[in-house]
Amino acid sequence: MKVYVQTPLGPSEKEYFTSKLPASVQAVFESDLSESTRQENVENADVIFGNVPAEWIESASNLRWIQLHSVGFDKYQDLNSKATLTNMKGFYAQPCAETAVGGVLAFYRKMDVFGILRSQNKWVGQSMRCEMSLLRKKKVLIIGTGSIGQACRKILSGFDCPTDFFGRSNPEARFRTPEDLQQSIHEYEVIINTLPGTEETRKFVSAEMISRFHSNAVFANVGRGTTVDEEALTHALLNGDIAGAVLDVTEEEPLPEKHPLWDCPNVILSQHSGGGYREEFRDLTDIFMENLNRFLADEPLENVIDPQKGY
Q1: Smallest Cα–Cα separation from 89: which of 308, 241, 305?
Q2: 2-89+277-296 and 93-269: same fold?
Q3: Which CATH topology does 2-89+277-296 take?
Q4: Which of 19, 47, 55, 180 matches a 20 to 30 Å C-alpha distance to 257?
Q5: CA–CA distances in Å: residue 53 to residues 59, 73, 253
Q6: Domain extent listing, the chain
Q7: Which of 104, 55, 101 is nearest to 80 (CA)?
Q8: Among candidates 250, 196, 239, which has minimal Cα distance to 74?
Q9: Quick one: the chain helix, strand, coil %, rounded to 5?
């Protein structure tokens, strides 16, 4: 059986991956192939580990299973394939939550500004004291009740932050509809968006909603860039209508060189790295191997998704 590995593993991680493979399975790594032969290898694979172009999958007649190395699968929502699709649901919850809360904390404690001052050899510590804020006891709204949102709430409990959720069906959510949320969103000084990218969530954080943000609001996005009206958010940031933003994701990635977000002094951009950590790819390999053993034993796979349904 042939596994095509698109997930970007380094040399030691490839060695680790290979050491975990059953004898009956052969791995082909994308990084070992010339660009002209990659699609052909995908089309001949039985299993794919990674996020290969959707159009390559549709012409892969031998393919039986695709294990994405991401949680998001919006690029595969129109996928025409009989292969089972699984994702990394829940895998990135803790690092993304730490990025969101850590970013807000860094914003309040001016760590981004101090980083710039250090690069300029400027010591202005005393004058910065009155510009710093505390995360402690800030009222927080988390948009989305999934694993990232739950991890955010757990971290925030250590700062004594009262936390409410928006979620359409989760019984612990205070808000169930965008209309209800919009009426009360001005109450929150910290708003963390964790929504996935679907047609239903496109620009969920709308221009109207942003116009109702508290003037001291800090907005963090570790969901998808498409879930926010980026133009309206950028306008609010540049005009000082809200305090700032921590953006791990943007609508277009990489962010275009001339995009105004680059010049916003009140924005932290973490460049879609929020789920990353040192052991990330080894841990991804372990999860893939657990599912591979299920696949070889003809047992149900973990985290099966239906791209057309969006979950």
Answers
A1: 305
A2: yes
A3: Rossmann fold (3.40.50)
A4: 55
A5: 11, 11, 16
A6: 2-89+277-296, 93-269
A7: 55
A8: 196
A9: 40, 15, 45
| Tokens describing residue 26 | 């052969």
3-state class of 228 per DSSP?
strand
Instruction: From 223, 18, 189, 217, select the one nearest 100 (Cα to Cα).
Output: 223
Helix runs in 21-83, H state only: 35-43, 54-58
Instruction: Give the strand pairing for 2-5 and 244-247.
Output: unpaired
Between CA 71 and CA 76 the distance in angstroms is 12
Estimate to the nearest angstrom the gap between the alpha carbon of 271 and the chain centroid: 10
Q: At the topology level of CATH, where does 93-269 sit?
A: Rossmann fold (3.40.50)
Q: What is the pLDDT of residues 126-172, one digit of tens each?
A: 999 999 999 999 999 999 999 999 999 999 999 999 999 999 999 99
Cα–Cα nearest to 307, from 75, 108, 118, 115: 75
Taking the C-alpha atoms of residue 116 and residue 94, their distance in angstroms, rounded to an integer, is 28
For residue 38, the one-letter residue type is R
The three state secondary structure string of 70-96 is CCCCHHHCCCCCCCEEECCCCCCHHHH
Q: Are the CB atoms for 146 and 92 separated by under 8 Å?
A: no
**C-alpha–C-alpha distance, residues 279 and 257, integer Å:** 31
